[in-house]
C-alpha cells in the first residue's frame, strides 16, 4: 500500500528533481573526497557545508509549502519546529562530547557545570542514544504541532489570526530558550560538538556523509509530499484551503485534514533542523526568531508555493543570494531581501515556477495546440 | 417528543434564535415527511437561510427542538456529523472547490469514508467512476469534467453544487436559491432535476422565483420574520392576504 | 541661605508675637551657659535634654549649632556663643537671637565637642523643638524624626504639641510619634496596646520595622499584640504592592495601547496586516531624536518644548511614509491579507536598514524634558513623571481617535468603506482616497506613539520589532475592528503581565501571557469584544 502511495506521486518534473538529488548525494562526496584538491573538479569543504545547509533549508521550505501552498495555513512559526529538531540533535551531540569538554565533566555539559548544576535534568536523559535523539527530532516538533494545531484548527482559527499566533508561539519559545535555567544552554545554545556516531564531526568524510544525508532526506521529503498531494488526501488539503465550510457540509472534518498536514510538516521541519545543526556546528535560541520563520516564507513564495519544486528552488536561490550579498555588499542584504518580499508579492504571486508554468501554457496555446490541462496543478490563486 | 417525530424526516418545533437581541427565527415549527419536497418562500431576511443554518448545525438554536429522521437531535451534532447523518446542503452563494476540476469536486463529494489517513491510500473504484460519469451526465457537465470549477459560469456552479449533493447521497437535501442567476431554460431544467431527485429523497428548496416554485408543484411554506406565515399549495399561499401584504405585493 | 533667612524671620515674628515668652529667655540662657561647665558628653546630653524639655523653639539655633560643631565657649566670660570661622578667628553671634556678638581669636574660645551619640540626641531634641514651629511641614518632619527615634523624653513635649495642633494630618503624625515614644517608655499594657494600634494604622514600611524591633524585645500579651499589628501592616503593604503592580501594569498597558492603537486602525478597521507598523513607531522616535538634536544645536532653551514640537512632525513623517506604502504597495494587495503581511514585512526590513544607514546601528540618545523626569510619591507608590505622562498621553490619543472615527466625516466614510466597499464607492465616496487616508492615519498614530516611546525605550533601528508582536496580540485579544477592545486588551495584558512577573520573572511572565493569549484565542477566536454578524464570517 505504501509503495503504491509513493509511486502514485511520480511525475516527470519530480522525477528529474529526485534524480538530481540522488546524483548529488553520490557525486558531491566523490568530488569532495576522491578528487585531489588540485583538480578543478574538487569540491572544497566550505562548499559542501554551505550547499548541505541549503538543502536542509530547502527541506524546511518544502515543509512550509505543504501547509501554506497546499493547505493555506501560513505558519509564521515553522522555524520553531526546525529549531526544536535542531536542539534534539544538538543535545545528542552534546552528550557525545563527554569528558572532552572544557570543564572535563563526563556527566554534565559545560554550561550546566558553569551553572553549578549537580545532575543532568530529566529531559536530557536518553539523548546519549542516537536512536532516541532521532525519535525526539521527529516527536518533539510533531507533538508540539499536533497539540497546537488541535487547539487552533478545532477553534476554526484561520488566515492571519493563525499566522499571528504561530508567530507568538515561536516568539514565546525563543524567550524561553534564552533563559539559562531552561537547561538548553541559554543564549549561547549548544555548540563545540566533537563527533556524531563516533565520527569526527569536522572530518571531510563526515561532512560528505551529512551532505548526502541531507540530499536524500530532501529527496524523501519530495517523494512523500508529491505522493501526498496527488492522493485524495491532497485534494482534501486543497479543498480545505479553498472552501472549508463546503467541506464541512460534505461531512469532512477540515481540522483533522489540516492537523495531519501540519504535524507531518513539523516533523519534516524537525528533520531538516537535525541535519542542519551538525553541518553548522551550533544551535542557539536565535533560530526561533520570528524573522527566521518569515524568511522561510519568502523562499517558498519566491520559488512558487503550491508546487513541489518551487520552495526548493526558492530556498536555494534566496540563500545563495544571501551568501553572495553578505560577502560582497553586506549592508545591502536587508534592502535586497525586503525588496524581494515586496517584488514577489506584487509581481510574482505564484513565484518563479508559477510564472514559468503560465508562460509555458501561453506559448503552447499560441502554438495552437490543445491547452494543457493545468487543472491538475493546484496553484490557482488560493482563497485565503 | 410527539408522535410526529417518529415518522417525519425533519421536525422543527418552537425553534428560536437571536443575534445580538435580534430574533432571526421566532418560534418556528415545520415538519417534513419522508420523500416530501417542500418549497419555502418569504421576503429577504425572513430567516430562510438561518433555518438551514440551524438544521445543518452551523447555528445553534436558543430554544426549540430539531429532530432528523424521527430520532436524531440535530442540536447535539456539528456540521460534519450532520452531513454524515445524511443531510446535504447547497449554499445560497454557490460554493464549490474552485481550484479543483469538476470531476474532483464530485470525487470529494462522493459518499465514503471521511477520515484523513484512508484518504491517503484511497484508489478510485470502478463503481465510483461510473457513479461520477452518471452524475456528470445528470448535471450536463460531462464535457467540462477536466476543467477547473473556477472556470464554470454561475449557473454551472449551481449545478455542480447540486451534483455534489447527489454524489453525497443524502436523505435530505436543503437547496438554497438554486436558480438565482439562471436563464429561463436553465431554471426549467433545474426544476425538472429537483423533481427527479425528490423521487427518492426529501428536499427543501428555498426560492424567490415564483415561476420556478410553480413548476416544482409542491407544498409551499411562507416564512416571515422567523415564523411560518402560511402553508399549503402555492395557490392557497399566494392567495393569503398576509402573504400578499408582506411578500408578493398587490 | 534663604532657608536660614526664613527661619530668622519666623523667629523674629515669634519673638514679637510671643512677648511673655521673653521672660523664659533667661532660663534658657542659663541652661545654655551651663554647657560651658559641663564635663563630658553625658553632662552635655543632660543639658540638651533639659533644653529640649522646655519645648522652646528659640533653642533651636543653639542646638543646631551644637550638632554642627559651631558652638563655642568664650573663655573670658564663660558664655556660650555661636562662632563662624573667618581668617584668623571667629565671628561670634548670640545663640538665641543670632545677633552678632563681636569677634574672637582662635585662642580666646573653646569649641564644645560633640560625638555621634550626642549628635543624635541633639537631633532628637531639635525634633522636639520644631514641633512648635509655625510651618506645618517643619512640624511634620519633627514628628517623623521622633517617630523614628521613639525618644520617651519627648512624650510631654508631644502631648503639648498634640494639644495645640490644628492641622489634622500633622496631628495624626504627632500621635504616631507619641505612640512610638510610648513603646520605648515601658508604659502600662493598655497604653502600649493602644500605641501599637496607632502605629499599625500608619501601615508603612517605617511602622513595620519599628514594630518588628519592638516585637523582638516584647513578651507575652504585648508580643502578640505587636505580632497582630505587624500582620495588619503587612496586609496593608501587600495591598500597596498590589497597587504598585497595577500602576506598573497600567503603565505597560498604556505603552501597549500606544503601540497597538494605530494597528487597530490599519488591521482592525481596514483588515490590512501591516508588519511595518513597528517601523512607523520607530520613525516617530527618530523624528523626536532629530528634533531634539536640532534644538540642542540651535536653541537649547526650547528643550522642554521638544516633545510638543516633535508630536505633529512625527505624525506627519510617519503618516507620509504610510501614505507612500499604501499607494505604492498595499493598494495592489487588498483582499489578500497574507500577501500584504509578506510585503509589509519586506517594507519593514527596508525601513530598518534605511534608518540604520542614516543614523547608525546603535542606540540614539533622546532626552527627557524636565517635566518628564523625576518621580513623586503617592502613599507607598512611587510614580515617575514620564510614565504618568505616557498614560495620560495614551488616553488622549485614544480619545482623539475615537472622536475621529465616530464623529467626523472622514471617520464615517472610513467605516462605510470598510463595511461595504462597493456600496460606498457607488454612493460617491472616493474609496482609494479613504483607504490612503485611513492607512496614513494609522501610521501617523504609530508615529506619535514613537515620540512617547522614545522617552522610555532605546531609540534604535529595531525599536519597532520589539512592539510588533505585542501590538498584534493586543489587537487580536481585544477583538479586531473594535477600538474599545484594543483599550481593554492593552490594559488587561499590561496588568496581567505585571502581576505574573513577581511570581514567574519577566521572561516567564511574558511567555505565560503569550500562551494565555494563544489559549484565549482558541476559546474566543474573535477576541474579547468580537464583532458579530455575517460579515465577519465571510
Ligand atoms: N450570523 C448572523 N449574525 C447576525 N445576524 C444574522 C446572522 N445570520 C442571519 N442573521 C440575520 O438574520 C436575518 C435572517 O437572515 P436570513 O439570511 O436567514 O434571511 P433569508 O430569509 O435567507 O433572506 P434572503 O432571501 O435574502 O436570503 C437577517 O436579518 C440576517 O441579517
Ligand atoms: Mg437566504
UniProtKB/TrEMBL annotation, chain A:
Topological category with respect to the lipid bilayer: Multi-pass membrane protein
A matching Pfam family: BPD_transp_2
InterPro entries the UniProt entry points to: ABC_transp_permease (IPR001851), ABC_transptr_urea_perm_UrtC (IPR017778), LivM-like (IPR043428)
Keyword set, alphabetical order: Cell membrane, Membrane, Transmembrane, Transmembrane helix
GO MF annotations in UniProt: branched-chain amino acid transmembrane transporter activity
Record has Secreted as a keyword: no
A GO CC term assigned to this protein in UniProt: plasma membrane
Transmembrane segments: 14-35, 41-60, 67-89, 130-153, 160-178, 209-229, 257-277, 332-356
Highest taxon in the source lineage: Bacteria
Location(s), subcellular: Cell membrane
Protein name, per record: Urea ABC transporter permease subunit UrtC
Organism: Phyllobacterium salinisoli
Lineage: Bacteria, Pseudomonadati, Pseudomonadota, Alphaproteobacteria, Hyphomicrobiales
TrEMBL record, chain B:
Source superkingdom: Bacteria
UniProt domain ABC transporter: residue ranges: 10-250
A molecular-function term among this protein's GO annotations: ATP binding
UniProtKB keywords: ATP-binding, Nucleotide-binding, Transport
Gene Ontology CC terms: plasma membrane
InterPro entries assigned to the protein according to its UniProt record, in alphabetical order: AAA+_ATPase (IPR003593), ABC_AA/LPS_Transport (IPR051120), ABC_transporter-like_ATP-bd (IPR003439), ABC_transptr_urea_ATP-bd_UrtD (IPR017781), BCA_ABC_TP_C (IPR032823), P-loop_NTPase (IPR027417)
SMART domains documented for this protein: AAA
Gene3D superfamilies: P-loop containing nucleotide triphosphate hydrolases (3.40.50.300)
Family annotation (PANTHER family): CONSERVED COMPONENT OF ABC TRANSPORTER FOR NATURAL AMINO ACIDS-RELATED, HIGH-AFFINITY BRANCHED-CHAIN AMINO ACID TRANSPORT ATP-BINDING PROTEIN
Protein name as annotated: Urea ABC transporter ATP-binding protein UrtD
Protein species of origin: Phyllobacterium salinisoli
Lineage: Bacteria, Pseudomonadati, Pseudomonadota, Alphaproteobacteria, Hyphomicrobiales
TrEMBL record, chain C:
Cross-referenced PANTHER family: ABC TRANSPORTER PERMEASE PROTEIN (PTHR11795:SF447), BRANCHED-CHAIN AMINO ACID TRANSPORT SYSTEM PERMEASE PROTEIN LIVH (PTHR11795)
Main location: membrane
GO biological process, one term: amino acid transport
Compartments where located: Cell membrane
Species: Phyllobacterium salinisoli
Name by which UniProt lists this protein: Urea ABC transporter permease subunit UrtB
Signal peptide annotation: 1-23
GO cellular component: plasma membrane
CDD domains: TM_PBP1_LivH_like
Positions of transmembrane segments: 246-273, 305-325, 337-355, 388-412, 433-452, 472-496, 503-521
Alphabetically ordered keywords of this record: Amino-acid transport, Cell membrane, Membrane, Signal, Transmembrane, Transmembrane helix, Transport
Family membership: Belongs to the binding-protein-dependent transport system permease family. LivHM subfamily.
Membrane topology per record: Multi-pass membrane protein
Presence of the UniProt keyword Acetylation in the record: no
Entry-linked Pfam families: BPD_transp_2 (PF02653)
Molecular functions per Gene Ontology: transmembrane transporter activity
